[in-house]
Amino acid sequence: MEAVANGKYVRMSPRKVRRVAELIRGKQVDDAINTLLFTPKAAARPVEKVLRSAVANLINKKEVSEKVDPEKLFIKEVRIDEGPTLKRFRAASMGRVMRIRRRTTHIQIRVTSEI
Fold first, then answer.
1. Is the pTM of this model over 0.70?
2. Beta-carbon neighbour count of residue 36 at 10 Å?
3. Right CATH number for 2-112 from 3.90.470.10, 3.40.720.10, 3.40.50.1370, 3.40.50.1010?
C-alpha cells in the first residue's frame, strides 16, 4: 500500500531542496524525520511537512483494511520539480535594471509499507 503527498509552490529554489531530499531518499520514515529535524537547512522544514502529510495520507486511507504500522513505512520516491518563477526587478548601477528570479518548487513524496 502506498500514498502520495504534494507540496506546491514552495518559495525555495529546487537546487536547495534537492540537497535536503538526497538525505532522506530510500530511508525508513522515522529515520528520515529525525534526519530532517536535525538538518540545519531551511529546506528541511517544507520537506518534513510533506513527508508527514504522506504518512497521514497512508494511515487514513479508506482502502486499507488492516492498520498500517507507521514504524514500518519507507520512502519510495522523492521528486523535486521546478515550479513557476516569479520575475522581479531591482535597480543596478548606472540606472540599469537587473532581473531577479524568485524560484519555486514542487515537492512530491511517495511512501509505501512494502520494501
1. yes
2. 22
3. 3.90.470.10
